[in-house]
Structures are given as C-alpha cells and as structure tokens.
Amino acid sequence: MIRSLIILLIMGATSAVLKYKLNNGRDMPAIALGSYLGFDEQGIVRSSNKQLRDVVLRAIELGYRHFDSASLYETEPEIGEAIRMKIEEGEISREDAFVTTKLWVTQHRREQVPVALKTSLTKMGLDYVDLYLMHWPIAVNEDYSYNDVDYMETWKGMEDAQNLGLTKAIGVSNFNQTQLIRLLDEGSVRPAVLQIENHPQITEQDLVNFAQKEGITVMGYSPLGSLVPRYGMQLPGPKMDDPILVEIARKYGKTVPQVVLRWLVDRKLVPVTKTVKVKRLKENIDIFDFSLTAEEIARINKFDEHKRFTIPSFWQDNPNYPFEKIENPVQNPFVAIKSKNLTN
C-alpha cells in the first residue's frame, strides 16, 4: 500500500474513476485496461517475461480496477497473477477488481460454456469473474469449420455459468441490433453488457442508443481508432494533429487521446484502452476531471463514417455474421495458423 501511495504522489494522482451500474445491480468502472496483444503470422502474440503482469500491477497502482481479457488472448494467467499479488499485498480486495473475459467461438455448445469458464478461472487463479462475454455470435468446430450451434444455445450455457456462480454477469460482444433483440426476446437472463468496436469513425449510435435504452451497458474497444497505427500502418482517418481534436484538447489542457476517451465516457460507454507504457497508462485513466459539451461531442461524432478496423470477413458467409459483407474476404487466419502448426 505504501509503495502505491508513493508512486501516485510521484506520478500525480488521477481523479476518481466513474462507475456505471449494471442491470444486475453491480458497479462497473467506466474505463477498462484491455489485454489483447495482437495477432501475427505465428498466431496470438503472447506476453514475454511477465510484461503484461507488470503492466497490470502498475495499472492497479494508478487506479485501474477493470481488466478485459478473453480465452483467445492467452492473457488470463498474467492478469489473474497480478490481481492476486495485489490482493496478497493488501492493496486491493477481490471485490475491488472487475474482471471481464470472453468465451471463444470453438466452445459454443451449451455444455461447453461452463467448462470453458472454469478453465479460464483456473488460469487466472480466481473463483469467479465479474463479467463473461460471448466473444462472437458465430460457432465453429476446433478445425474452424462451421457447425450448427445457434447463439441462443450458447446463451443458455452463459446463463448456466452465471447460475453456477462462475460469473456475476453475462453479456455479448460483436452482436448487431437484430441479434441483440432476439437475445432479449428469447433469453431468460438479460445481457448486462454489449462490447463493440467504437471510436470517432464508427459511433454505432443507433445500436448504442438501443442497448442503453434496454439497460445494457456498452463497452467500446479500439477507442482511439485511426489516432494510433493499426496492423503496423497508419490508416485513413483523424490523427493526433487533427485541428478539431487539438482545439478541444487545448481547451481542457488534455491530450487528443484523452479527449477521445472522454468522448466515449460522456456517451456513457466504457472505453477498453490498451497500452504497455506507463506514461500511456497514466494518461488514459486521467480523464475523469473534465467533461465535453454537447456541441463538442457532436463535432467528434461528425467523424463517423461507419469505418471498422475489426472485420473478420473470413466468417461472412456464416448466417450469424454480424457485420456488412465485403468483396474479396480475407483468408481465415485461424485455419492458416492451424494448418501451419500441423505441418511443422
């Protein structure tokens, strides 16, 4: 505890993080630290030398309490280790940490869902997670061929996991509005959270409005959009020197990324940030001492062009694919990696 206080005094304490009340009555911190480290020709990028664990340790010292993972990311063990270390040091309690993880597409049969979550809990060394999300509405076999499992069957498995006490809340990720409506109509438990890509180039305001009207809290991944490089390159869209964003940032004495993150918070979304740099950790969470005006939010909304950076077009012939189809879909990278591993 003393070490954390010293670090906060040296680096400058941040304002208290807002919390949103989920529809199950539990609180969710209004900013999350994401743990997806990327994907390359070898598959999922893994943390080396406990780098991610150390990032989470520092994040906890800076005030982060919400950590986002997924079985796909292979980051669950280091997130769990960091949380357990801080609990053992007496700096936080388990109740202070909000842990989100996700079910992967190869485990969508009802009976597989609780087993998958138990595996995640074992990796994290935790008794429960605070939020369990269905990562995609698409179900595939281990070889990534499609199967006939409907996402409503999977949702029943999610409900089973919650009833077993393995998770405090359940929700979905990458669902469109039609799929969300069906979930609300046919499910026994209402989803607590919807996680979607959200940044100035894809506001998804109609979907956000619908979810929030239904009492579903929305999380936004890739919140900085084109401000930062993606896939190793600069993609079209607003950058750090955009005049509109710079003007707003100067008004509040903040950086452009802080303005964009606050833009999500002011729309009552939970941004899922991602960094391994301490300076960025501090910067990203230091957004709760100001708020944007309605006019400033509207100006940023004008960047919207429904531009996605996460487009798994290799799944687009699946009936449950949630997005618009594109010409020339990419090759399924999971199949390519699996085939490469089998031949090595």
Order of helices and strands: HEEEEEHEHEHEHEHEHEHHEHHH
- What is the C-alpha radius of gyration, as a whole number of Å? 20 Å
**Helix fraction?**
25-40%
Would you tell me the structural class of the helices and strands? alpha/beta
User: Tell me about the biggest sheet?
Assistant: 8 strands, parallel, barrel
Number of helix segments?
12
Overall mean confidence score, pLDDT: 93
Shape label: globular
**Residues in β-strands, percent:** 5-15%
Unreliable parts:
1-13
Distance between the termini: 48 Å
**Secondary structure tally: strands:** 12
Say what oligomer this is. Answer: single chain
**Can you list the strand order of the major beta sheet?**
3-6-7-8-9-10-11-12
Based on the model shown, name its key terms:
alpha/beta, 12 helices, globular, two-stranded antiparallel ribbon, single chain, 12 strands, 344 residues, eight-stranded parallel β-barrel
